[in-house]
Amino acid sequence: MKTTISQAAKHKDQEVTIGAWLTNKRSSGKIAFLQLRDGTGFIQGVVVKNDVSEETFQRAKSLTQETSMYITGKIVEDTRSSFGYELQVSDIEVIQEAVDYPITPKKHGTEFLMDHRHLWLRSKKQHAVMKIRNEIIRSTYQFFNENDFVKIDPPILTGSSAEGTTELFHTKYFDEEAYLSQSGQLYMEAAAMAFGKVFSFGPTFRAEKSKTRRHLIEFWMIEPEMAFVDHEESLVIQENYVSYIAQSVLENCKLELEVLERDTSKLENIKAPFPRITYDEAIELLKEKGFDDIKWGEDFGAPHETAIAESFDKPVFITNYPAEIKSFYMKPHPERSDVVLCADLIAPEGYGEIIGGSQRIDDLALMQERYEQHGLTGPAYEWYLELSKYGSVPHSGFGLGLERTVAWLSGVEHVRETIPFPRLLNRLYP
């Protein structure tokens, strides 16, 4: 019977055949231990000399790292293994012998591993990170589907900037100017006016020349937009969503979290509601923590976000940032014209901002004023202005950066390990 490692528990005490690769092996005289993977998981294969043919035993001892094979044996329970099962091997059919596989069990430098990212993905820790990424994506779809959101796909090639910045990748769209999308938000606002509650999940691009452990050039965003939803209601949806994916990872990625040696007690606490502080309160908190140079009106950098997060054991919302440092589409606070109805969600343990969101402007006159202030002229922005003209309603939205969230929940230090093929400032290979 042909099966996979992930289905091993369903075939206890049965003989099965698995298509697998060898990750490592050791032998001691009359027994060989094969560390096997098949893409769904990892299992140990045990080859006992007295239980197999001499040819099979010698084949097991001569297997090289990443050799592919069909391996047959009985699935048996193994309480010593975190997986819980092992394979008592009876036969091995080599598909292709791998020679001089470059990533050996010894320690390698980061640049070497990044140059061999196409192979590094096979390693146990990288496999665990990608499985956690997959679980976050799966539970994201489940959360929004259960809450009556419609999946809408915004374009990747756009004629304008969502954030009004210059950190864009420019290209030619036949005889027009075009950019790689830095956010699908403006299009999602249009979709929300058609479907009520929507979300997108797709790649975004920032031409920001940053080398920090939190930044990628190409990354993936989950961007919900909601009609008839105000800022406070949006915050509740955000904290419920983050709680949902955190608990899904805890429930469904136990083996992966163990491989990564993640302190799961920190994740068990990620349950709504989350604490909230205003930007004003954050400034005071930073001054108490020794950031004497921080001034009202300045944006927070990584050290500031980390210091703020240290005061809480859950993600924390920082609300009501100064209007001058936020995007043109954010709705002003009804009692203070100098701040807007927005929030950044800061993850614990130094992982920084994982969500940025706000209530959007729904007043045509104010939006026209913002257009003039930010120089948003020409046909590229005309369609977005029309959203405020034809049946505008209170609406809010947010964007969650997938890679930062993966890094936080899996406990890895750098976002380059949270995406299959990272695009960094000096890396377009492989």
Automatic annotation (TrEMBL):
Keywords assigned by UniProt, alphabetized: Aminoacyl-tRNA synthetase, ATP-binding, Cytoplasm, Ligase, Nucleotide-binding, Protein biosynthesis
Aminoacyl-transfer RNA synthetases class-II family profile domain segment(s): 130-430
Principal cellular location given in the protein's record: cytoplasm
BP GO annotations: asparaginyl-tRNA aminoacylation
Reaction catalysis annotation: tRNA(Asn) + L-asparagine + ATP = L-asparaginyl-tRNA(Asn) + AMP + diphosphate + H(+)
GO molecular function term, any single one: transferase activity
InterPro entries (alphabetical): Aa-tRNA-synt_II (IPR004364), aa-tRNA-synth_II (IPR006195), aa-tRNA-synth_II/BPL/LPL (IPR045864), Asn-tRNA-ligase (IPR004522), Asp/Asn-tRNA-synth_IIb (IPR002312), NA-bd_OB-fold (IPR012340), NA-bd_OB_tRNA (IPR004365)
Assigned EC number: 6.1.1.22
Highest taxon in the source lineage: Bacteria
Subunit structure: Homodimer.
Identification of the protein by name: Asparagine--tRNA ligase
Organism of this sequence: Oceanobacillus polygoni
